[in-house]
Amino acid sequence: MGFFYKHRILLGFSGLVLAVAVTFAFCFFALSRATAQSLRLTVVIDAGHGGVDGGVVGTVSGTKESDINLSVSRLLQREFEEAGFLVVQTRPTEAGLYDAATAGYKRRDMEKRAEIIQKNSPAIMVSVHQNFFSQTSRRGAQVFYREDSEASKTLACLVQTSLNSMPECVKKTSALAGDYFVLNCSDTPSIIVECGFLSNPQDEALLISKAYQEKIAAAIAAGALSFLSSGANVV
Ligand SMILES: [Zn+2]
How far is ligand 1, taken at its centre, from the CA of residue 128, in Å? Predict the structure, then answer.
Protein backbone atom coordinates (compact mmCIF):
# COMPACT_ATOMS: atom_id res chain seq x y z
CA MET A 1 0.00 0.00 0.00
CA GLY A 2 2.89 2.27 0.99
CA PHE A 3 4.57 1.50 -2.31
CA PHE A 4 1.53 2.55 -4.36
CA TYR A 5 0.96 5.59 -2.16
CA LYS A 6 4.56 6.75 -2.71
CA HIS A 7 4.22 6.20 -6.42
CA ARG A 8 1.00 8.18 -6.57
CA ILE A 9 2.69 11.08 -4.80
CA LEU A 10 5.66 10.79 -7.12
CA LEU A 11 3.44 10.65 -10.17
CA GLY A 12 1.38 13.57 -8.92
CA PHE A 13 4.55 15.58 -8.29
CA SER A 14 6.00 14.77 -11.73
CA GLY A 15 2.71 15.77 -13.31
CA LEU A 16 2.79 19.07 -11.49
CA VAL A 17 6.38 19.76 -12.57
CA LEU A 18 5.49 18.90 -16.14
CA ALA A 19 2.40 21.14 -16.09
CA VAL A 20 4.42 24.07 -14.69
CA ALA A 21 7.15 23.52 -17.30
CA VAL A 22 4.64 23.37 -20.13
CA THR A 23 2.88 26.51 -18.87
CA PHE A 24 6.22 28.34 -18.65
CA ALA A 25 7.24 27.21 -22.12
CA PHE A 26 3.87 28.22 -23.53
CA CYS A 27 3.97 31.67 -21.88
CA PHE A 28 7.54 32.23 -23.04
CA PHE A 29 6.66 31.20 -26.59
CA ALA A 30 3.49 33.35 -26.62
CA LEU A 31 5.39 36.32 -25.22
CA SER A 32 8.30 36.08 -27.65
CA ARG A 33 5.86 35.61 -30.52
CA ALA A 34 3.85 38.67 -29.44
CA THR A 35 7.08 40.69 -29.07
CA ALA A 36 8.29 39.59 -32.50
CA GLN A 37 4.97 40.49 -34.06
CA SER A 38 4.81 43.85 -32.34
CA LEU A 39 8.23 44.68 -33.76
CA ARG A 40 7.26 43.75 -37.28
CA LEU A 41 6.09 46.53 -39.55
CA THR A 42 2.96 46.22 -41.65
CA VAL A 43 2.68 46.91 -45.35
CA VAL A 44 -0.77 47.42 -46.86
CA ILE A 45 -1.15 46.32 -50.47
CA ASP A 46 -4.18 47.60 -52.35
CA ALA A 47 -5.23 45.66 -55.45
CA GLY A 48 -7.22 48.22 -57.43
CA HIS A 49 -10.82 47.62 -58.56
CA GLY A 50 -12.55 44.22 -58.15
CA GLY A 51 -16.00 42.68 -58.34
CA VAL A 52 -18.23 44.41 -60.89
CA ASP A 53 -15.51 47.04 -61.35
CA GLY A 54 -12.90 45.32 -63.53
CA GLY A 55 -11.01 48.56 -64.26
CA VAL A 56 -9.55 48.89 -67.75
CA VAL A 57 -9.37 45.93 -70.14
CA GLY A 58 -6.56 44.61 -72.35
CA THR A 59 -7.33 45.42 -75.98
CA VAL A 60 -5.94 42.12 -77.33
CA SER A 61 -6.62 39.52 -74.63
CA GLY A 62 -9.62 41.15 -72.92
CA THR A 63 -7.93 40.58 -69.55
CA LYS A 64 -9.42 42.70 -66.78
CA GLU A 65 -7.15 45.10 -64.92
CA SER A 66 -8.61 43.88 -61.60
CA ASP A 67 -7.28 40.34 -62.23
CA ILE A 68 -3.75 41.55 -63.05
CA ASN A 69 -3.82 43.86 -60.02
CA LEU A 70 -4.73 40.97 -57.72
CA SER A 71 -2.10 38.67 -59.18
CA VAL A 72 0.69 41.28 -58.86
CA SER A 73 -0.51 42.17 -55.34
CA ARG A 74 -0.25 38.54 -54.22
CA LEU A 75 3.27 38.27 -55.65
CA LEU A 76 4.15 41.53 -53.93
CA GLN A 77 2.81 40.14 -50.65
CA ARG A 78 5.22 37.21 -50.94
CA GLU A 79 8.13 39.62 -51.52
CA PHE A 80 7.35 41.68 -48.41
CA GLU A 81 6.67 38.63 -46.24
CA GLU A 82 9.99 37.10 -47.26
CA ALA A 83 11.60 40.37 -46.14
CA GLY A 84 9.92 39.96 -42.70
CA PHE A 85 6.98 42.35 -43.00
CA LEU A 86 3.38 41.70 -42.06
CA VAL A 87 1.14 42.22 -45.09
CA VAL A 88 -2.49 43.25 -45.21
CA GLN A 89 -4.33 43.13 -48.51
CA THR A 90 -7.28 45.52 -48.85
CA ARG A 91 -8.78 43.21 -51.51
CA PRO A 92 -7.51 39.66 -50.97
CA THR A 93 -9.96 38.09 -53.46
CA GLU A 94 -11.65 38.90 -56.77
CA ALA A 95 -14.63 40.39 -54.92
CA GLY A 96 -15.03 44.16 -54.54
CA LEU A 97 -15.15 45.74 -51.08
CA TYR A 98 -18.79 46.84 -51.20
CA ASP A 99 -21.67 44.76 -49.81
CA ALA A 100 -23.82 44.84 -52.93
CA ALA A 101 -23.32 46.43 -56.35
CA THR A 102 -26.08 48.96 -55.73
CA ALA A 103 -25.90 52.73 -56.09
CA GLY A 104 -22.83 54.21 -54.40
CA TYR A 105 -20.85 50.93 -54.45
CA LYS A 106 -17.70 52.62 -55.73
CA ARG A 107 -17.74 55.09 -52.84
CA ARG A 108 -18.32 52.28 -50.32
CA ASP A 109 -15.50 50.29 -51.92
CA MET A 110 -13.06 53.21 -51.58
CA GLU A 111 -14.14 53.97 -48.00
CA LYS A 112 -13.49 50.36 -47.03
CA ARG A 113 -9.98 50.57 -48.50
CA ALA A 114 -9.35 53.77 -46.51
CA GLU A 115 -10.64 52.10 -43.33
CA ILE A 116 -8.27 49.14 -43.78
CA ILE A 117 -5.27 51.43 -44.40
CA GLN A 118 -6.07 53.64 -41.39
CA LYS A 119 -6.78 50.72 -39.04
CA ASN A 120 -3.46 48.96 -39.72
CA SER A 121 -1.15 52.00 -39.41
CA PRO A 122 1.20 50.52 -42.01
CA ALA A 123 4.78 51.61 -42.68
CA ILE A 124 3.80 52.07 -46.33
CA MET A 125 0.83 51.53 -48.65
CA VAL A 126 1.20 50.33 -52.24
CA SER A 127 -1.80 50.46 -54.56
CA VAL A 128 -1.52 48.33 -57.72
CA HIS A 129 -3.16 49.38 -61.00
CA GLN A 130 -2.79 49.09 -64.79
CA ASN A 131 -2.88 52.06 -67.13
CA PHE A 132 -4.83 52.80 -70.32
CA PHE A 133 -4.42 55.63 -72.83
CA SER A 134 -5.99 56.57 -76.16
CA GLN A 135 -2.53 56.85 -77.71
CA THR A 136 -1.72 53.13 -77.95
CA SER A 137 2.05 53.63 -78.36
CA ARG A 138 2.33 54.79 -74.73
CA ARG A 139 4.14 52.19 -72.61
CA GLY A 140 5.78 51.61 -69.26
CA ALA A 141 5.29 51.72 -65.52
CA GLN A 142 4.28 54.95 -63.79
CA VAL A 143 4.36 55.64 -60.05
CA PHE A 144 2.23 58.31 -58.36
CA TYR A 145 2.70 59.89 -54.94
CA ARG A 146 0.83 62.24 -52.67
CA GLU A 147 1.93 65.76 -53.50
CA ASP A 148 2.15 67.13 -49.96
CA SER A 149 4.06 64.15 -48.56
CA GLU A 150 7.85 64.10 -48.86
CA ALA A 151 7.95 60.49 -47.62
CA SER A 152 5.41 59.45 -50.26
CA LYS A 153 7.51 61.20 -52.93
CA THR A 154 10.75 59.54 -51.76
CA LEU A 155 9.08 56.13 -51.79
CA ALA A 156 7.63 56.77 -55.27
CA CYS A 157 10.99 57.88 -56.69
CA LEU A 158 12.78 54.79 -55.35
CA VAL A 159 10.11 52.46 -56.79
CA GLN A 160 10.09 54.34 -60.12
CA THR A 161 13.89 54.08 -60.36
CA SER A 162 13.69 50.35 -59.65
CA LEU A 163 11.00 49.90 -62.35
CA ASN A 164 13.03 52.01 -64.82
CA SER A 165 15.98 49.67 -64.32
CA MET A 166 14.05 46.63 -65.58
CA PRO A 167 15.36 45.35 -68.94
CA GLU A 168 11.80 45.52 -70.34
CA CYS A 169 11.57 49.25 -69.55
CA VAL A 170 11.46 51.03 -72.92
CA LYS A 171 11.15 54.57 -71.56
CA LYS A 172 12.40 55.83 -68.22
CA THR A 173 9.89 58.10 -66.51
CA SER A 174 9.75 60.15 -63.32
CA ALA A 175 7.33 59.59 -60.47
CA LEU A 176 4.39 62.01 -60.60
CA ALA A 177 2.25 63.72 -57.97
CA GLY A 178 -1.34 62.52 -58.10
CA ASP A 179 -4.52 63.64 -56.37
CA TYR A 180 -6.05 60.25 -55.59
CA PHE A 181 -8.30 59.20 -52.73
CA VAL A 182 -6.23 56.16 -51.82
CA LEU A 183 -3.13 58.37 -51.47
CA ASN A 184 -4.90 61.11 -49.53
CA CYS A 185 -6.89 58.97 -47.09
CA SER A 186 -4.05 58.53 -44.57
CA ASP A 187 -0.69 59.98 -43.51
CA THR A 188 1.02 56.72 -44.48
CA PRO A 189 3.71 57.07 -47.17
CA SER A 190 1.58 55.86 -50.07
CA ILE A 191 2.04 55.23 -53.78
CA ILE A 192 0.01 54.05 -56.75
CA VAL A 193 1.93 51.85 -59.19
CA GLU A 194 0.51 51.72 -62.70
CA CYS A 195 2.48 48.67 -63.89
CA GLY A 196 1.99 49.31 -67.60
CA PHE A 197 -0.54 50.12 -70.34
CA LEU A 198 -3.27 47.65 -71.25
CA SER A 199 -3.90 49.88 -74.28
CA ASN A 200 -0.50 48.84 -75.69
CA PRO A 201 -0.22 45.29 -77.13
CA GLN A 202 3.42 44.76 -76.05
CA ASP A 203 2.79 45.96 -72.51
CA GLU A 204 -0.38 43.86 -72.37
CA ALA A 205 1.48 40.71 -73.46
CA LEU A 206 4.00 41.29 -70.68
CA LEU A 207 1.45 42.19 -68.02
CA ILE A 208 -0.67 39.07 -68.49
CA SER A 209 2.36 36.76 -68.14
CA LYS A 210 3.12 35.40 -64.68
CA ALA A 211 6.88 35.67 -65.30
CA TYR A 212 6.64 39.43 -65.93
CA GLN A 213 4.21 39.92 -63.04
CA GLU A 214 6.85 38.33 -60.79
CA LYS A 215 9.51 40.70 -62.18
CA ILE A 216 7.28 43.73 -61.65
CA ALA A 217 6.50 42.63 -58.07
CA ALA A 218 10.21 42.11 -57.37
CA ALA A 219 11.05 45.58 -58.79
CA ILE A 220 8.33 47.31 -56.73
CA ALA A 221 9.46 45.47 -53.60
CA ALA A 222 13.14 46.32 -54.20
CA GLY A 223 12.35 50.05 -54.40
CA ALA A 224 10.02 49.94 -51.41
CA LEU A 225 12.44 47.92 -49.29
CA SER A 226 15.25 50.42 -49.91
CA PHE A 227 12.85 53.10 -48.65
CA LEU A 228 11.92 51.06 -45.57
CA SER A 229 15.52 50.16 -44.71
CA SER A 230 16.52 53.82 -44.95
CA GLY A 231 14.10 54.62 -42.13
CA ALA A 232 12.48 57.33 -44.25
CA ASN A 233 9.06 55.95 -43.31
CA VAL A 234 9.61 57.07 -39.70
CA VAL A 235 8.57 60.70 -39.84
ZN1 LIG B 1 -7.00 51.20 -62.10
Answer: 8
CA of 69 to the centre of ligand 1 (A): 8
Which amino acid is located at 208 in the chain? I
Task: Please answer whether residues 66 and 50 qualify as being in contact, where contact means their C-beta atoms are separated by less than 8 angstroms.
Answer: yes
C-beta separation of 61 from 203 below 8 A:
no
The answer to whether residues 52 and 101 touch, using CB atoms and an 8 Å cutoff, is: yes
The secondary structure element, H or E, covering residue 89 is: strand 86-89
CA 65 – ligand 1 centroid, Å: 7
Residue 131 Cα to ligand 1 midpoint, Å, equals 7
Residues 50-66 pLDDT 10s: 999 999 999 999 999 99
Q: 47: buried, middle or exposed (CB in 10 Å: 19+, 13-18, 0-12)?
A: buried
CA of 227 to the centre of ligand 1 (A): 24
What digits encode the pLDDT tens for the residues 27-52? 444 544 444 455 689 999 999 999 99
Contact 46, 113 (CB under 8 A): yes
d(CA 232, CA 235): 7
119/100: higher pLDDT: 119
- Answering whether pTM is above 0.85, one says no
The rounded Å distance from CA 31 to ligand 1 centre is 42
- Nearest Cα neighbor of 49 from 198, 186, 189, 161 is 198
How far out from the chain centre does Cα 159 lie? Answer: 14
